[in-house]
Amino acid sequence: MNIVVLTSFDENYSSYNPQTYYWNGFGRSENYLNTYIEKNKRDIREQYLQFIDNLGEKNKSKKIINSIFGTDNFHDLWQMSLISEKCPNKSLVTSNCIKLLAFDRILKAKRPNIVRLNSNDVELFYSIKILCKSKNINLQYSFSNFIYLHLKKIDLIPNFLKTTYFIMKKFFSCFQFRKGGKKLNFKNQISIISYLLNYKIDQSGEKKGRLLSEYWPGLIDILFKLNKKINFVHLGVDSNAIKKFNNLERDIENFNNTDTNHLLVDRNLTFSVLFLALKDFLKIAIRSLMIRNVNDMFLVKNTSITFFPFMRRHWISSTRGSHLFNSIITTYIFDKLFSKLPKQNMGLYLYENQPWERALIGSWRKFNHGTLIGVEHTSGYLRYWDLRFYKSQNYYYNNKKNKLLCDYVCINGQLSKECLLGSGFPKERLLEVEALRFNYLNDYLKKTKRKKLSNQNKILLLSDGNYHTSKRLLLDLSKIIKEINLKNEITFKPHPGDINSEKLINSAKKMNLRISNSKLLSEIVCHEKIVIVGSGSASIEAYLLGKKVIVYCDHKKLNSSPVRNLKNINFVTNSNDLLIALNSKIDSISFKNKFFWLDNRLTKWKRLLSDHLN
Predict the structure, then answer these.
(1) What pLDDT, on the 0 to 100 scale, is given for residue 493?
(2) Span 361-387, average pLDDT
(3) Which of 408, 347, 352 is nearest to 378 (CA)?
(4) Which of 114, 345, 523, 594 is at 20 to 30 A from 327, Cα to Cα?
(5) Residue 54 burial by CB count (10 A; 0-12/13-18/19+): exposed, middle or buried?
(6) Dihedral (C-alpha) 32, 38, 40, 43: value to the nearest 10 degrees?
(7) How far apart, in whole angstroms, are the C-alpha atoms of residue 20 and residue 6?
(8) What band does 175 get if pLDDT is binned at 50, 70 and 90?
(9) pLDDT per residue over 24-40, tens digit each?
(10) 3-state helix, strand, coil in the chain (%, to 5)
(11) Cβ atoms 115, 128 nearer than 8 A
(12) pLDDT at residue 372 above 80?
């Protein structure tokens, strides 16, 4: 009798069993699904991307989605859905669906009579149950495994209550709104859209006292020298965004001036916008409730798989939940904002394929503004399994879908260019630019010798904005901290965009870790061992600066680190592996730059502005 065992428990597996496959974790054997996926990555990734991109294009699913959302020449709420976004940081949905594709291939090869499931994951249980039933495979499981389901408290709250709470929060946010800023009368305007994060107040030169975004270092100076007028459009990342923005506007004398204006997207939320959004939301939510047999949409072509058990929560939130309401509000806010602005010659925005970007593109086109360019800010295309940055091979041949994209995408290095072109992206829509975020490395990499720190045990922990993985890293560190060979303190630096950073800081303080408020570069330079959570781009900086890089991966997710294919990188998922990596000696590391285009003169950026701005 041919039996296949599938387990998702987080225990450490000391003995090898050829019949057992591991849903979570990393190992050398292909019995770990993560390892099997890496060996078959191209086919599996393309299969998943085709499913997502074709969802809504097949006759039945297209009819369902159109009947729910209706049609709009500028905004596509389905493309703003959690399912289309494919964000690995918001949930395990993408990772789980890709693992299910891999397990289906394993079953085809093994042809078992019985699948024995050891798991406390109810979504995995239903997915495997449907898969086995369609293949006439006997599924064995123990109900006792499901008595104590590891569900988050928020998952137990009905969608109606969560959505109502979200709408009420938006309602009370309207009371913070007030008009402000000068009327815009610029002729040659540029809009730069990014987050209200990583900014500084210029303390020198003619621009003294002005707010400058550190997302665009060097570029702003070029635009000023060209006498271009800039509208900075900021997106808040937390509930304090309006308060923070109002304080900046009050305290900075030259906040809005003849050269620059600062606009906060959140401040365009008014009661009129809220009620228009609520009206649309109720229409769409009611229509979505009328749909039957939705799960048929999630059947994967040429397989026995349905993704619906994994995607059900995303479907509900995107068709009648808080995510839908937020998407509708975002489209109205961007419509309001760009209807008031005079014609913008160019728009630059941080490209991550997030829902707000879809709203931005639609509103930008709706009000006939100029060239819109998405800018790869960090290392998105180097994260093979961060599928926000990728589409299926045939996606770009669909004219309707092309209208939902920006005019051009800026890539900041040869590796990113190769990755994007290899995915089917049209070459004519790519623009080469220097990596603004990493351009400071140019001076460091020109140095032939570097001062080596005498203490090789100085450790820096860097969060990537994923709270749960960062929390798990701190938990694993607490288990081994007494066994680490230390001569100096351990430093923890939270991600500036993590709304839960205070919780992480409190956990770090309990372990007597030093909390950093310094610049990232200064911390990397003075530490020798850098532990980076998940997909953080700081791993590239640490690598190029000759540091020992340890990447802490979420054992439940795919490895989306931008340095996943490099040698001399330690990838760890548990306390034992972390201890070994931290106590190991630092080897000689090659730090030749093959990631980014770096140039202090920003020659590529100047060429782009010359070609597309005038």
Answers:
(1) 93
(2) 93
(3) 352
(4) 345
(5) middle
(6) 120
(7) 6
(8) confident
(9) 999 888 899 999 999 99
(10) 45, 15, 40
(11) yes
(12) yes
Tokens of 352: 């991550």
211-213 and 199-201 as β-strands: parallel, antiparallel, unpaired? antiparallel
pTM of the model: 0.92
What's the whole-number mean pLDDT along residues 568-593? 82
Question: How far apart (Å, rounded) are the C-alpha atoms in residues 196 and 442?
Answer: 26
Q: Angle, nearest 10°, between helix axes 308-320 and 122-134?
A: 120
pLDDT at 456 over 80: no
- Cα 568 from Cα 215, distance rounded (Å): 29
Q: Tell me what the mean pLDDT of segment 127-142 comes to.
A: 93
Q: What is the pLDDT of residue 587?
A: 65
Q: Using alpha carbons, select from 395, 358, 387 the residue that is nearest to residue 81.
A: 358
The β-bridge partners of 260 are: 230
DSSP state of 431: E
Q: Which of 364, 184, 376 is nearest to 262 (CA)?
A: 184
Q: Is 198 left (phi over 0), alpha (psi -120 to 50) or beta?
A: left
Q: What is the chain's Cα-based Rg?
A: 25
> Where are the strands (E) in 471-579, listed by range?
490-493, 514-515, 529-533, 548-552, 569-572
| CA 454 to centroid of chain Cα atoms | 37
Closest CA to 512 of 484, 480, 478: 478
In whole angstroms, how far apart are CA 461 and each of 11, 337, 539, 560, 584? 25, 39, 11, 18, 16
Would you state the pLDDT for residue 153? 63
- As a whole number of angstroms, the distance between CA 516 and CA 495 comes to 11
596/438 Cα distance (integer angstroms): 8
What lies within 8 Å, CB to CB, of 236 at 6+ separation is 195, 196, 242, 244, 245, 264, 265, 266
End-to-end CA distance of the chain: 72
Beta-bridge mates of residue 20: 5
Residues β-bridged to residue 192: 232, 348
**CA-CA distance, 503 to 463, in Å (whole number)?**
12
The DSSP annotation for 35-77 comes to: HHHHHTHHHHHHHHHHHHHHTTTSHHHHHHHHHHH---SS--T
Residue among 364, 323, 335 at smallest CA distance from 347: 364
Sequence-ordered list of residues with C-beta below 8 angstroms from that of 176, at least 6 positions apart, any chain: 242, 243
Count how many residues are written for the chain: 614
Tokens, residue 334: 């961007």
Q: How far apart are CA 55 and CA 57, in angstroms?
A: 5
Average pLDDT over the chain reads 87
* Residue 15 neighbours by CB under 8 Å, 6+ apart: none
What single-letter amino acid sits at 430? L
Residue 398 confidence (pLDDT): 73
